[in-house]
Amino acid sequence: MLLNTKQVMGYYLIAIVVLVSDQMTKFYFKNTFQLGESVEVISPILNWTLAHNYGAAFSFLADQNGWQKWFFAILGLIVSGFIIIYLKKAPKTANILNLGLSLVLGGAIGNVIDRILHNHVVDFIHVHYADVWHYPIFNIADIGICVGMAMIIYDMLFLEKKRRSV
């Protein structure tokens, strides 16, 4: 059984909440912090640190000469388009899958907007342990993408087979 229009709109609304939260926080940090500026939030594990990512996850391809901006922007638009269409055809009972897809959708569009407007993605969440270990700086869109992908993988591994057997 496929999702109805009301359910699809609910998942699109979740994507919009992720997108708006992402863009509002990026706007705040871009207009309040200097590039590289860091403010301790929870010592010694969390700082707000403004960073620009010219690549993808973990700064993948950031050292290239600019072609990666369009590659990742187009890839993000293709993925977003696929998700928008797929959510209309998704099974009603696939709640985890559909929620995961909506989180990825909001995050993907948030990072595409950055790439097009700023030529980079604005990052600001800096998780670390003192000066011993640093996780790559990230943003709300990245959280949506990562949590959403974890939900999609969980659905694929544990729930999809059950839906098909019903």
TrEMBL record:
Q: Which InterPro entries match?
A: Peptidase_A8
Instruction: Report the EC number(s), separated by commas if there are several.
Output: 3.4.23.36
Catalysis: reaction(s): Release of signal peptides from bacterial membrane prolipoproteins. Hydrolyzes -Xaa-Yaa-Zaa-|-(S,diacylglyceryl)Cys-, in which Xaa is hydrophobic (preferably Leu), and Yaa (Ala or Ser) and Zaa (Gly or Ala) have small, neutral side chains
Subcellular localization: Cell membrane
Its placement in the membrane is given as: Multi-pass membrane protein
Recorded superkingdom: Bacteria
State one molecular function term (GO): aspartic-type endopeptidase activity
Protein name according to UniProt:
Lipoprotein signal peptidase
Annotated source species: Moraxella catarrhalis
User: Encoded by which gene?
Assistant: lspA
